[in-house]
Amino acid sequence: MKMKTGLMICFTVMLLAGYSVTAADLNSLRGPVSIDETKLASDMKKVQQDTAPIRRNYVQQPPLIPHSIRDYNITLHNNKCLNCHSWKNYVEYGATKISQTHFTDSFGIDLADVSPRRYFCHQCHVTQSDAQPLIENDFREVDSLSR
Is the pTM of this model over 0.85? Predict the structure, then answer.
């Protein structure tokens, strides 16, 4: 609902400012394919294979996953990530252990097991692939901001 309201405000401001938007001005991530055409899926991106931990680009960035997670299903009763990254198993598997922050609930209480709000790893942690950015950006790593 908020998205629709935001779009309506944006279009209203554009109309009031005298701008007009035509179909030629809009670019889709699908490319020059009309909405009623079916476009073949892009090739699958190659995910990095088992590397050392990946350097973080900004403060508080969740660590990136340096290996494939294909078929790593996370359900209410099973989390394959915990097989290697739990405090009990990380040394045996040579994996990074889960941060202590993952054991704190939303009220700041420390728990004996991973907090439900931190249980679904893929909502913050992602793998890296050979994909190019979808749009141009001028992102700079955090270290470059202090120079």
Answer: no
